[in-house]
Amino acid sequence: MINEFKNFIARGNVVDMAVGIIIGAAFTAIVSSFVGDLINPVIAILTGGIDFSGWFYAMNGESYASLTAATEAGAPVFAIGKFVMAVINFLIIAFVVFLLVKMVNRIKQAAEGEAKQAEAEAAPAGPTELEVLLEIRDALRKG
User: Fold this and answer.
1) Same domain, 85 and 129
2) 22 vs 33, 62, 106, 119, 128, CA distance in Å?
3) Same domain, 89 and 112
4) Alpha-carbon distance 110 to 118, whole Å?
5) Given its phi and psi angles, is residue 66 left (phi above 0), alpha (psi -120 to 50 degrees) or beta?
6) 83 shares a domain with 59
7) Domain boundary among 9, 34, 50
8) Long-range CB contacts (within 8 A, 24+) of 106-115
9) Could you tell me the residue range of the domain that residue 125 belongs to?
10) 14 with 59, same domain?
11) pTM score, two decimals?
12) Same structural domain for residues 40 and 61?
């Protein structure tokens, strides 16, 4: 049982998955900071300083000064603004991830192109079609 577990852990796909999760967690922190600290302030400037996260509807019909006050009072609320901000953050994060994947794919294609070019240069060149046809013609003349 222990040997099976060692073999399972030692397989490449499990280790690759673990590395992916760790990198993903670190990347999430970077992207969240990018969105929260750089993009959201720009959105606030463009929308005239509106903070979407403060939009809410108290379902008990009473008025509250803020979402925090409503939740502290135990009122059931539709936190519309939090949802809007989550959607905006998702779209921004998805776009940033799209740009990163696009950049990685470009780098990967360039590396593959260089490898193919090196293989082509290293491979011996075979006879051309004309050379083969000339050999066949000469062989037919002799025979």
Assistant:
1) yes
2) 17, 45, 24, 35, 53
3) yes
4) 12
5) beta
6) yes
7) 50
8) none
9) 52-143
10) no
11) 0.54
12) no
Specify whether the CB–CB gap between 81 and 55 falls below 8 A. yes
Residues 77-99: tens digit of each pLDDT: 888 888 888 888 788 878 878 88
As a whole number of angstroms, the distance between CA 64 and CA 57 comes to 9
Quick one: 105 and 44 in the same domain? no
- Alpha helical stretches, state H, the chain: 2-10, 12-33, 40-46, 67-72, 80-122, 129-142
| pLDDT tens, residue by residue, 106-131 | 998 888 888 777 776 776 777 888 88
- Cβ atoms within 10 Å, residue 70: 21
Q: How far apart are CA 11 and CA 5, in angstroms?
A: 10
The tally of domains found in the chain comes to 2
What CA–CA distance (Å, rounded) separates 137 from 142?
9
**Do 129 and 91 lie in a common domain?**
yes
Q: Let me know how long the chain is.
A: 143
* DSSP calls for 57-92: EETTS---SSHHHHHHTT--EE-HHHHHHHHHHHHH
In a shared domain, residues 62 and 45: no
Tokens 């776009």 appear where? 95
